[in-house]
């Protein structure tokens, strides 16, 4: 099932800390994936699906694959806007389109696609995404949250 284009993108605000950067004060490339992970987690939380609760119920979301393109660097103390838009939904997986932008000038810094699989916690075998989550993803929802 393709995600509906009418659902607004989710925006998570975060700040670049010293620990996110290399010796030159530039965000280390792999940390963009961390920012994207946080945005996906906060998107699910905003929709009422807290990952720690889902884990206690035997359900996990795990990254199956990711790709990223880098356009410009983020630097120490930059405020970032990280989007998390479901662009495809299948029985046991969600594909997110994500962007990391600098808040000050809206410059696109990084863009990626991440495929997350829904699995059983005890076996790590695929399982269907809960119907309640599928229903929420199919309809309009809130569009942003802050940190």
Automatic annotation (TrEMBL):
CDD domains with a match to the protein in the record: 4HBT
Is the keyword Protein transport assigned to this protein?
A: no
Record flagged with keyword Iron: no
**UniProt keyword terms in alphabetical order:** Hydrolase
Which source organism? Azotobacter beijerinckii
Please give the name of this protein: 4-hydroxybenzoyl-CoA thioesterase
Q: Which GO terms describe its molecular function?
A: fatty acyl-CoA hydrolase activity
Q: Which SUPFAM superfamilies does the UniProt record give?
A: Thioesterase/thiol ester dehydrase-isomerase (SSF54637)
- Write out the similarity annotation: Belongs to the 4-hydroxybenzoyl-CoA thioesterase family.
